[in-house]
Amino acid sequence: MTTEIVDIAIIGGGPVGLFTAFYAGLRQASVKIIESLPQLGGQPGMLYPEKMVYDIPAYPEILAGDLVENLIKQLDRFEATQICLEEEALQIEKHEDYYEITTSKQKHFARTIIIACGNGAFRPRKLELEGAENYENHQLHYFVTNLEQFRDKNIAICGGGDSAVDWALALENIAKKVSIIHRRPQFRAHEHSVELLQNSSVEIFTPFIPERLNGDGNTLQSVTFKQARGEEEIELEVDDFIVSYGISSSIGSIKDWGLELQRNAIITNSKMETNLPGIFAVGDIATYEGKVQIIATGFGEAPIAVNQAMAYIHPEKRIQTIHSSSLF
Q1: DSSP states of 151-213 as a string?
Q2: Element (H, E) at 100
C-alpha cells in the first residue's frame, strides 16, 4: 500500500478512462487508473476486439482492439501514469482534502476521482445446459477475441443480437462453415447487418434453442437444437460453439457511495460534476439530459471532467484549456 496522494484517480480503464488519463497527463496531473479487469480496454478490448467500430471521429472504421491499442500508446507518452489492474473499487471515504479509495487489493489516495467505469463490471450470460462448464474456454466461447482461432472450423453461433450477427459475418470467410441459431424468427441486430447475413453463406436456423451438448466431457462433438415452439430437432457438428446471449453488468459498490443515481447511471451536470465534491463521472456511467451513449461522447466529456478536477484542486488558479498542438 502506498500513501502517495495523486491528483486524479480514474476508476475504469476502458476507452474513455484511457483518454481521460491522457488528457490529465496533458494537464500535468498525477494520475492513477484503477481497473477491475486484468487488462485495459474495457468492453471493447475484452468482448469485441475483432469488431469494427464506425463512430470514432477521423476513423472511417477501426477494430475495437486497435482503438484500445492506440489509446494505450497515446497514454504511454506520460510514463508517470500508474495503472492498477484486477482491482475493484469497493469503498470511498472523504478526508479533508483527499479521498481514500479501498479496493479489493489495497488503499489508494486521490484529491479527486473521475468515475469512467462504463456500465460497471460485466460478465457473459452463460449457456445453461448440462455439462456446459466442461467445454468453456476451449470449445465453448462467450467472447471472440481472435478470429483466426476459428479458421477452417465448423462454427455454430447462438444468439440474435449485434454481436452474434457480426461474429457470423466476420467468420464467414475464415471458418469452414458458420451456422447461426436464434430462438426467435427475427434477429435483433441492426437491419443492415441482418440483410448482409441473409445474403451470406451463413446457415440460419430459427426459431431454435440449444437442447443438448454432445461430447465426452472433454471434446464437444455436436450440439442438438430444438424448435422453440415445436418438436423438431437438428444436430450440428461443431468444432467450436459461440454463445452470444449478451452480458449482465452491475455498478457494484458504487451504488453505496452516496452518489445521486438514475437507473444505475451517475447524474452529473454540464461540468461532469456529481453531487459529491471532487467526484466526477464520464462515459456511459454518467447521465444528464440529452446524453448520447457512444464512445465519442465520453471522449468529449473527459477534458471537461479533468479541467474541473484541476480547478477543484487549485481553486486559486484560472484553469485554461490545454491544446496538444501547443505542447508537442
Answers
A1: TT-EEEEE--SHHHHHHHHHHTTTSSEEEEE-SSSS--S-HHHHHHHHTSS-EEETTEEEEEE
A2: strand 99-103
Residue 30 phi, psi (nearest 5): -80, 135
Q: What is the DSSP letter of 80?
A: T
Cell matching residue 315: 481553486
Mean pLDDT over 130-142 rounds to 94
Burial class (CB in 10 A: 0-12, 13-18, 19+), 223: buried
Instruction: Please give the domain boundaries of the chain with CATH numbers for all domains.
Output: 5-122+248-326 (3.50.50.60), 126-245 (3.50.50.60)
When pLDDT is cut at 50, 70 and 90, the band that residue 145 belongs to is confident
DSSP code string of 6-35: EEEEEE--SHHHHHHHHHHHHTT--EEEE-
Q: Is 268 helix (H, G, I), strand (E, B) or coil?
A: coil
3-state secondary structure of 136: strand
Q: Which class for 148: exposed (0-12), middle (13-18), buried (19 or more C-beta within 10 A)?
A: exposed
Q: From CA 9, how far away is CA 35, in angstroms rounded?
A: 11
> CB–CB of 113/280 below 8 Å?
yes
Helix (H) or strand (E) holding 310: helix 295-313
> Do the beta carbons of residue 210 and residue 186 sit within 8 Å?
no
- What does the pLDDT look like over 1-35, one tens digit per residue? 458 999 999 999 999 999 999 999 999 999 999 99
Give, rounded to a whole angstrom, the gap between the first and last alpha carbons of the chain.
34
Q: Are residues 210 and 135 in contact, defined by beta-carbon separation less than 8 angstroms?
A: no
Alpha-carbon distance of 277 to 173, in angstroms, equals 53
DSSP 52-69: EE--BTTBS-EEHHHHHH
Q: What mean pLDDT is predicted for residues 316-325?
A: 78
